[in-house]
Design brief:
Strand content: under 5%
Number of strands: 0
Number of helices: 4
Radius of gyration: 22 Å
Structural class: mainly alpha
Largest sheet: none
Helix content: over 70%
Order of helices and strands: HHHH
Length: 85
């Protein structure tokens, strides 16, 4: 049984970190990878595809998280003072 099978889907933050690491490695491969034009086209297409996945993931995370209170809402509900000494 693989390590991933034990834990199911990775957390969004873990997946985003993995995608960013993959993009970073692909960018660095420009100098160390094969020199054919076809390989570089595929590399660039992969980089853009991963960027799009990161953007979709960030947008979905924004939709899933509750909205932050506005400054006006914060003024309406001040936090109680802590009187402990």
């Amino acid at each position: 049984m693989s390590h991933d099978a034990d834990h199911g889907r990775p957390a969004p933050d873990d997946e985003a970190a993995r995608l960013r690491d993959t993009v970073r490695r692909l960018v660095l491969m420009k100098e160390t990878g094969p020199k054919s034009a076809a390989w570089h086209r595929a590399r660039v297409q992969t980089i853009w595809r991963l960027h799009q996945r990161l953007e979709r993931q960030a947008a979905q995370a924004d939709q899933d998280s509750p909205p932050l209170p506005t400054q006006a809402e914060q003024r309406q509900h001040p936090e109680p003072d802590d009187d402990r000494a």
